[in-house]
Amino acid sequence: MAMTQITLRPAAIEDVAAIVALHVSVWRATYRTLVSDAVFAALDEAYREARWKAALTNPGRDQLVLLAEQGERLVGIGAVGAPSHEAFGGRGEIRFLYVDATVKRQGIGRRLMRELARHLADLKYPGAALGVVAGNDPAIAFYSSLGGTVIGSYVNPGPIWPSEDIVMVWDDLSLLA
Ligand SMILES: CC(C)(COP(=O)(O)OP(=O)(O)OC[C@H]1O[C@@H](n2cnc3c(N)ncnc32)[C@H](O)[C@@H]1OP(=O)(O)O)[C@@H](O)C(=O)NCCC(=O)NCCS
Hints:
About 30% of the residues are buried. This protein has one domain (about 5-175): Aminopeptidase, CATH 3.40.630.30. It has a seven-stranded mixed β-sheet with strand order 1-2-3-4-5-7-6, sandwiched between helices. It is an alpha+beta fold and about 180 residues long. The chain has helices at about 15-30, 35-40, 45-55, 110-120, 135-145, 175, and strands at about 5-10, 65-70, 75-80, 90-100, 130-135, 150-155, 165-170. The chain contains six helices and seven strands, in the order βαααβββαβαββα. Coenzyme A binds next to helix 1, strand 4, helix 4 and helix 5.
């Protein structure tokens, strides 16, 4: 039986519940061993729901939130926008890239990255950048395989959890897009 196709589309406010469910479950599986118990407990559904509602109601500059769906089922999210920190050197910032564990390694992360990079190229950004938590080795391997390079690290103050983040960049958006 052929797999149901994956389609991408921008998120809308009606998608908040599905986004929160995916974000929290993938985040918990990824960060269980990388954060304290207090942080693990604090970044719960209520916390994420408030943040996603705000982001989709009142979009940040140059924001695009993309959803990957398999039929009706949300299987991936990715967002991009103006840089939130000087560590990104004015490049567009990729954030919240999460793919459901059941559909990993099928190219969904790569497709989301490609569309996010196209958005940045359309907006004439000189490149893309992101912060990835030190120790999240699978994600670092994924970004490296897409041509990302490490330029340094910074302490991401975060609203709840200050993390040591590796800064990865793409200075040729056509490589990603
Ligand atoms: C990182 C993540 C987004 C990748 O998404 P994905 O859809 O599984 O990735 P893709 O199938 O597009 O992978 C593309 C290539 O990246 C590399 N790659 C992906 N996952 C990898 C892993 N776990 N280890 C090593 N390389 C990996 C491979 O080269 C892969 O190509 P291949 O499968 O043909 O070998 C996904 O694993 C995820 O959601 N992880 C948990 C959340 C997270 O850490 N997000 C990033 C926060 S900064």
